[in-house]
Amino acid sequence: MPPSVHLALVSGDNRVRDPQVRVAVEAIDEGGGISEVRLYHNGTLAEARLASGSPRVQYTFEVTLVPGEDNLLRAIALAKDRLEGSPDEVKVYYEAPVPPKPTMHVLVVGINNYDDRSLHLDFAQPDAQALGRFFQSHGNLFSSVQVVSLLDEEATKANIQAAFDRLAQMAKPEDVVLFYFAGHGMLVGRDFYFLSRDMHKVADIESAVREYGIAASSLGEALQRIKAVKQVLMLDACQSESALPTLAKATLGTRSLEKPEERAVRMLAHANGIYLIAASTAEQYAYEVPELGHGVFTYALLSGLGEREQAKAANPNGLVTVLSLLNYVARAVPDLAEKYHMGDPQTPVIFNAGTDIPLLASVDASPR
Length: 368
Prior knowledge:
By secondary structure, the protein is α/β, with parallel strands linked by helices. The protein folds into 2 domains: 91 residues, Sandwich (Immunoglobulin-like), CATH 2.60.40.10; 259 residues, Rossmann fold. Helix content is 25%, strand content 32%. It has 8 helices and 22 strands. It has a 6-stranded mixed beta sheet with strand order 11-10-12-16-17-21, with helices on both faces. It has a 4-stranded antiparallel beta sheet with strand order 5-4-7-8, with no helix packed on it. Helix 1 packs parallel to helix 7.
């Protein structure tokens, strides 16, 4: 007959607050000998020990538990002919502590009124203002939401660079940092430039762009200096796709990116990701629509987040994550551009690496 086996927690308590538990397993020879003792955790072999040849053997195993009730420990012993004896099982509940909530840092830049009046826009400033206001009042996953808004005359090149410097000092590795830039963008040579409010013509347009614009390469260097490993950057500007290869090279290529309310906070604690989002391709305009009161891209973002009604980007768990939001925006922007007869299409472009990042827990939200 195959050996019998008995399993017991060394602590004797099935509810524990330490993820590491020690398990004592005893196997008794019932006539067929003992060749091996195995311990399984949730159906996966945790460890196996070869028997010493004694009629009774005892082993202690150490197991790392997963949070919650899903910890089934199962021990079996094998006879000399490899027949398995009857298993013994125990369930363990690991009461894992809820990780502390991180801080969310939001930097929004929106420029309607440039020094060069020919560059005037209608909705870049209200777009940035609306997005910053939304996160300021919907930060239920975070210990606090720190919003810095640089709008119109405040959105100078010096002020934008200073805001990045402050974030490099303030943001911690576990925090989430979201950047949003709405205004004019232009490709000069191989580099994309976001035009600050200072922009006006000097000797020639390319010289002016280089002097008053913020190059994608400079943005990439600024992102690298920020310690937070959860970063989302959104560019709502014409030709903004042109910025993404440079930004991706600076951020995605140099970081080690590893692998709902309480559930979402746990997810946040383990999420590492860089997301770079452009409102349009390198050949497209980023449209503003008077009927919507916003640019197409930002209108889709706010609809997905649930500014006006239920969050259209919420997943089945009631969470809006970066990926669920971007999936919604990728569908909504082309549809909105077509609906409002913009002429040429508008297609968001995304570069990303790492795991998904929760942004909002909306229990009343339903997926669309």
